[in-house]
Amino acid sequence: MLIGEVTRRSGVSARMLRHYDSLGLVRPTGRSGTGYREYSGEDIRRIFHIESLRSLGLSLREVGRALDDPDFTPSGLVDDLIRQTLDRIANETELLTRLRRIGAAEPAGWEDVLQIVALLQALGSDSAGKRQRAALSSAAEDRMPVEALVEAALNETDPNVAGALRWALARSGDEGLALLARGLEAPEAEVRKRAVQAIAAIGNDTADALLQQALTSTDIVVRRHAALALGPHGVADTIPTLIDMIVAEVNDVDAADALSALSADPASADRIASGLVSHLDSGVADSSARRRLTQALAGIPGSTASRALAELAQDEDRGVALTAAYIIGLRDARDSGGR
């Protein structure tokens, strides 16, 4: 079969067939009477084998080894090709994400594009200082794509940078809330916590509605951080979770502060005091938990809390009794000073 017919049947160009010939990959087994290359059936099969291996990403040198070296084993090479392909996909995906973010920022010219690229690079820097400056700059200049800010906020471990990112997101309004809501479903507890904190920092009606939903989450991490965010805003539904946090000694000081803020409402104050007393009397809480619950009563005004403290001052647990007596003394001094 002459080269023209081989080209038509195989789809491989005559130029490439000559290149294969020069490399020794496929040498025609014969020549016509006029000196033209003639390919046998075995030559055609080899051409198809070469094209098949090339489709997997093998170089021509690797193709030659695969076909001619009897000791060649494909497993190692295939593993290498898999790793190379995964790396290439990751790089291309990262590039695609970067391009989409630049497009979402709607740059007016190349100067805007360069500025956005610089901010994105700084946001991914190993330097916490650079990341923080990028977050602050993005908020001031309104250039950073919100998707990039959300991703950074959900993964940031440095508290100063995280605060700057939350501030930048708060300035963006509702735009990042849908993305942050997805963070509430993240497999990592720390990411879920950061999502709640970022939503709380936005502080508008839509954000508060998301946090209200989070209060009923089956995820205890989400529920607790939502309670810490909503408690100081007077949301009484946070009370059971905040009290449970004191018992479990999880952010218990913050939880007690949130209960104290909630107790500005007299109805909430009685509900909080009753909840604390219920846990104190349940017999479930250990000695240290009972002391924390007693301490939490210090920030709760009203007669219910006062009666509970008077009874606790006689408690069998000396630590609880001393804590209650000390709180009563502080309350008496405060009340006498106010007369």
Automatic annotation (TrEMBL):
DNA-binding among keywords: yes
SMART domains: EZ_HEAT, HTH_MERR
InterPro entries per UniProt: ARM-like (IPR011989), ARM-type_fold (IPR016024), DNA-bd_dom_put_sf (IPR009061), MerR-type_HTH_dom (IPR000551), MerR_fam (IPR047057), PBS_lyase_HEAT (IPR004155)
UniProt keyword DNA-binding present: yes
Keyword set, alphabetical order: DNA-binding
Domain HTH merR-type: 1-69
A Pfam family this chain is assigned to: HEAT_2
GO MF annotations in UniProt: DNA binding; DNA-binding transcription factor activity
The name this protein goes by in its record: Transcriptional regulator
Organism of derivation: Catellatospora citrea
